[in-house]
């Protein structure tokens, strides 16, 4: 057999590798696997979805809905517990929350807090009932519990569920400031378990939680809620913060209140709460945004005006009284014409700036009058310009004038003053003698002008 015939036989033999690949390759004619007949997803048409729609059930129409977890959130010392008790009282009596939001009806409400909150809750409830004209005995739908030391663990959740079912509560409000875990993740897990427990018992959970940061006085928004553990369960919220810093001893609180949620129309308003100087009152006044903005603008304008007055007082304290002309004071104050004129006129009208007598003003530049701070303004600023000339000027102002001419008119007789013609002419001559000479020369006093000579023409 020749070599060419052997090579042709080797080429005709099949390769085992190619044969195995062919056997392993799937057949193009094979049928795909059939899907299971029962699908885990259920389909609902649009008509069926709208047919199953139920009207919303409200706690506070337009603000809080039933069966949705709500959060009352704000920084510390911002009256969160007081507002929570106001909310609990309004829901239990079917009254009005913060004097504006009326409850849908009277609900059975439970309030849960720590043992340290007992005395504060009693005092706030008494003040709220007194302000709303409600008898404490009539709050039979409001139930309290201060025995829950922690919100963690299945045992505490079981106790809470039994308490809700025993009293047939519809709303459970928990002041969770001292009951949550210190970590963010732990607090979020506790809140999820609490929401599940309360909703399974048939009630609506509302949590009063502290904000874990101290923002400046401003309205809070959803961005502030996003960084808090309450964001894990909040389906509706009430955010509270201060509009102004609290003044100790005044009892007045100026707050921002922002509310919203998945089933409510969000809005923002102001709330003024007056607890009285002794802390024995509870007066709530809702404020709209327009009045708050106008009040803020007035306050800013008043602060700016007071700052300008302070600048003028500072200038008048350090300038020499005999050189304190109006122009000099304006130059030292650094104000523009409009601000200086308005501030100057106001201070002169209020008596804070008084002129110095003309006899001393003659020593000033160009004979312009000089000014100084009044005694009341100097006491207010707790400092006074001490100058020998200024002290002499004060003594001369207090000293009566000796040669001051008296009026010939009788001032002690009642009624109209009666004068004869001779007295009237004598009075006119006396006034003319006292009048200073006119700076404009009369025609007789003017020098005689010679006629101009005509030039001769050449």
From TrEMBL:
State where composition is biased (Basic residues): 445-458
Ranges of Basic and acidic residues composition bias in the record: 396-405
Q: Where is this region: Disordered?
A: 20-42, 382-415, 427-458
Q: InterPro entries annotated for this entry?
A: P-loop_NTPase
User: What highest taxon heads this organism's lineage?
Assistant: Bacteria
Coiled-coil regions listed: none
What is this protein called in UniProt?
A: Uncharacterized protein
